[in-house]
Amino acid sequence: MSDVVECRSETEYGERPVAIFQQGERLEIERILSRWRTPDGKWFRVITQDGEVYELNYSEAFDVWSIHIE
Q1: Minimal CA–CA distance to 62: which of 35, 37, 33, 42?
Q2: Can you tell me the distance from the alpha carbon of 10 to that of 40, in angstroms, rounded to the nearest whole number?
Q3: What's the chain's Rg over C-alpha atoms?
Q4: Which of 9, 33, 35, 70 sits CB 3.0–4.6 Å from 45 for a disulfide?
């Protein structure tokens, strides 16, 4: 099962993550600290409402998100 990221999409999918779901809990993203693109897809470094920092990756080739806590 892939990780769950709620995002806003205007011109393409996954432009701006707004929340992540961890252990059944929805955590709103307070701020996007940085964003970048690699051959693997889109990456975001974010801070959630509880102060935790995460790296999010959206693999465009496989259409899945992964969430990594820092």
Answers
A1: 42
A2: 21
A3: 11
A4: 33
